[in-house]
Design a protein that fits this description.
Blueprint: E1 4-9, H1 16-30, H2 34-40, E2 42-47, H3 53-59, E3 66-70, H4 87-91, E4 97-100, H5 103-108, H6 113-125, E5 129-134, H7 138-142, H8 146-157, H9 163-166, E6 170-173, H10 187-204, H11 207-212, E7 215-218, H12 226-230, E8 237-240, H13 247-254
Helix pairs in contact: 1-13, 6-8
This protein binds 2-phosphoglycolic acid.
């Protein structure tokens, strides 16, 4: 059975102390729901800035329903790349995941599908599971191009991977017009795209792999709308930005399956 995921993307927020406070509050709340997480196959993923990764190893020790990762990694193995952090360095903190291809990386750091493909590959090679993001901008949706855009993002970046690698990838559908805007995709819009993506995986790989792949939704997912979104058959959870910075809200999202 594929996992249900509540993933928190802190983006460029939280000082060291604020991060510790947020995780401590979240753990306290989550302690009341361990049975729920177990019974519903829920995994909570935290994606803080790099500075928190080492701390999370200690804070999340002995927490079977929690795991963590980075928001980005370099396409290079190691070397003279000032300011970059490699997949193997991230893995050495105990992290198990990395977000690849967030629309903010595509937009502000000009990351192309080709670079993202290299990043996903090096992440996998170093034992990290990529959360690969895809999604259209508003103008593309208005022209009815959303399916073609998402298909090209996935085919150019990851659909040429080996089956063993594809099985480790989590897909996040994040319509860019919904990110940080307070405008959420309707449950039906999310379901339509998630089913489309699952179908693409089935076509390119197999139905079995498609059924095992977690496809999560991102874009103004919050404590009030998570339940409806997650009730859709192909929506396996959420990649949450703003609402993941408030322990109570993110906890509510993690119990909305
Ligand atoms: P948001 O961000 O929840 O603040 O819209 C989601 C994301 O960018 O992953």
């Amino acid at each position: 059975m594929r996992k249900k995921l509540a993933a928190g993307n802190w983006k460029m927020n939280q000082s060291l102390d604020e991060g510790i406070g947020l995780v401590s509050n979240l753990l306290e709340l989550a302690a009341t729901k361990t049975e729920y997480y177990q019974n519903n196959n829920v995994q909570i993923l935290l994606f803080p800035p790099f500075i928190h990764l080492v701390l999370l190893e200690t804070l999340l020790e002995g927490q079977p329903h929690f795991a963590y990762g980075a928001q980005n990694c370099s396409w290079a193995d190691k070397g003279a790349y000032t300011g970059e952090v490699s997949a193997s360095m991230i893995h050495s903190t105990g992290a198990g995941y990395v977000i690849i291809g967030h629309s903010e990386r595509r937009q502000y750091f000009s990351e192309s599908n080709r670079i993202l493909s290299e990043k996903a590959q090096i992440a996998l090679k170093n034992g990290l599971q990529p959360v690969f993001c895809c999604g259209e901008v508003l103008a593309e949706r208005e022209k009815g191009e959303q399916f073609a855009i998402v298909e090209s993002q996935l085919s150019e970046a990851i659909f040429h991977f080996e089956e063993e690698d594809i099985k480790k990838i989590i897909i996040a559908y994040e319509p860019v017009w919904a990110i940080g805007t307070g405008v959420t995709a309707s449950p039906e819009q999310a379901q339509e795209m998630h089913a489309f993506i699952r179908n693409l995986i089935a076509k390119n790989f197999s139905t079995e792999i498609a059924n095992e792949t977690s496809i999560i939704y991102g874009g103004s997912c919050n404590a009030a709308n998570a339940k409806l979104l997650f009730s859709m058959p192909d929506v396996d959870g959420g990649l949450v930005g703003g609402a993941s910075l408030i322990a109570e809200d993110f906890f509510t999202i993690s119990t909305s399956f």
